[in-house]
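Hi team,

Filling in the usual template for the complex we talked about on Friday. All components are listed, including any nucleic acid strands or ligand strings, so the model treats them as one assembly.

SUBMITTER: L.P.
PURPOSE: interface mapping
COMPONENTS: two
RESIDUES: 795
SEQUENCES:
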Amino acid sequence: MRQEILHLLRWRWRVLDRTYTWLQPVLVLVAILGCPLVFFGTFKLGEVLRFVGPGFQWMILSLVMLMVQLLFLGSSLPAVVAALYLGSDLELLLAAPLRARSVFTARLLEVLAFPGGLLLILILLPALWGLGLRLGMGLVYYPLAILAVLCLPLLPLALGTLLTMSLVRYLPAWRVREMLAVAGTLLWLLFYLGQQALFTGFQERFLPLLMAMFTGGERPAFLTMDPGPLPGNWAAWSLVAAGLGRIGPACLFMGLFALLSLGAYGLCLLVAEWLYLSGWANIGVVQRRRRPVKTAGAVPYRTRWLPATFRAIVLKDWRVLRRDPQALLQLAWPLAFVLVWLFSGQFRGLPYSFFLGNTIVWWTGLGVAWFCLMAVSGLALAAISREGRSFWVLRSAPLSAWELIVSKFWANYLLCLGLGLLFSLGAAWLQRTGLVGFSYSLGLVMLMGMGITAIYLAFGAQSPNLTWDNPRQAYNQGSGCLGFIIGGVYALSIVLILAVPIGLPAWEPLLSLLRLVVVVGLTAGVTWKALLAARQGVEAIEL
Amino acid sequence: MIEICGLTKCYGDLTAVKDLTLTVNPGELFSLLGPNGAGKTTVLKILAGLLRPTAGTARIAGHDVLQDGQQARAITGYLPESPFLYEKLTGRELLGFMADLYRLPSERASQRAQDLLRLFDLQGVADDLIQSYSHGMRQKVALAGVLIHEPKVLILDEPTSGLDPRSARLMKDLLRELCQRGTTILMSTHILEIAERLSQRIGIIHQGQLIACGTMDELRALSRGPGSTLEDLFLQLTGGVEVEELVRYLEG
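RESULT (copied from the run log):
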């Protein structure tokens, strides 16, 4: 069985290595640069921890263990869905003359090791060793740290696997993947918003509390503290005990932790295999579920005045976007940023600037435009790629490349304008900038949104990925980088033209008009050239 | 209706189609046969506007597919072998989308969509997302989309692939009916029985070249004898010797 597992893992590594050509260089880079960096970083941090009692050290280590386990639990869910349900090769392997247990073990080891487990060894282990060295921990600490790092992801992975299989029992795998993507993003958003809220009152409330913890003398005696029911705490407790030279309790708690983790993982393997092979949660169960959707008929009446091909593409794109949570999530981050930014009210009370006029109005408008451009750039970049393997429908239709590009442009630009309208209204209300502020924000969004949408669309059309399986693969990183650079230059040019002082106050009204003419001309030119480039890109696509 | 003249398509060093010349008459059902990798799909893709030829021309109803592609595609319906569809649209929405792409008037589009959904027995799932459809249902909804604008020319790549016997029968009857109404059909297939029973003419393509073309009787005349089947001829022309050797090897 061991040979089979090793063979499957080797084969999988080969596939991963060929699919993600950057994987090996990144791992080598992390090993060469990341490990020493983390080691010396935590070595320095150890200087601070040296002056606090073992109670506080235990608290920090417990927190680290808990965070790592939560991260593994969160990341294991989509990884298990991909490995067991969306990989499409599990059935093939199960039908091969291999033990089913070998296949499941290899598949779950792969989820454990790539890339989470490897990164854990490359980052957490040097961190623990660096800390141990600085704090002068005993020799037993170091092997126990290795054991802790190796066992840490086992329990969350076991729980994640069983949780995923339970979800797949009732929902299709693709739906589980979408839900997890949404849940993951929402968690990060909550974390971000919480962090922002925390840091708003950090100096007044939390800093004194933290200082008291550092300077308030020795914590209650460490060994009288109850490690509690969280297994991660046992590992942390064991490490601090090992550092204090209390080898017996250290080995006992680490042993308990390792035993529980390995036991849970082993049990999970058996249960997962049984659940899958018994048909309780396998691919056959999930494929036949259907989801009825309320539709407005083949062609909604209210849109019949629009040109047919334009209506077809715009409506189709919006419907697909609305129903694809993973694509829709791109709009969540800018929304969160703009909420935090607006509610923090950081531009209230800025002085009136001679060159920029009302500074609050200017910065608010620029901020709103920035968030809208952030949202639309990703959508425009993937506008062609999102068609995926269905692109044959558009390509075989009597539709010119220009019609396609213009429709795609409007589908994204109108979204940008919708967001701009929403954000501008919110900004004008929260920042109390009134109608002038609203008009200014919306004007900037209309202007810069046009250029940025066209630029990203053009780069996305130059080298689209039409063969993706996961919607996330629809984004071409190289094109995104180029779009960011060219789009950045364009946006910066607009800002500079509008904001740079000329030094002729008497001529300012005329200069303002001139600035406006120049930015409108520049945007029109950039948009036109970008759309032409996008058309060329679409014409060059062969399927 | 379809005129292909000296068509060549190269992918780098590989020549997928080499100097192919072929004509399909109006109202004719023409089957293109050939082993895997022979170049059938490439020919069909060029006609559908998905690929550009390296050399030669292809015309549909007099419209050059390269120079006058939009006009050619307006009267053509193309169904690929694996019709990937928009997973997040419902079957009904897909038909509406395709009707708009072919600029069908709204009322006509709704009527056609309804008729086709009924014809293909898809009414019960018309408002379900396509991602919940089985392979056969996808094939049927894709064909419904292709037929929504009543094309004069149909280009079908393995149209019966993955269909259950009932759906396959429906497809064969439909193709026969369409032909009788004057639709020109060019299809590729691996199922020789379908080609033999449905087609007026058959072309056999091998290594990018058309090696035989004609009616069943003409093809029989080409083969070893009057009683030989299309399968015999196909194997004889496209490497049947290797197959016979393989059979001998397997028989020990």
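MY TAKE: The CA atoms of residues 60 and 236 of chain A lie 9 Å apart. The radius of gyration of chain A is 28 Å.

Thanks, L.
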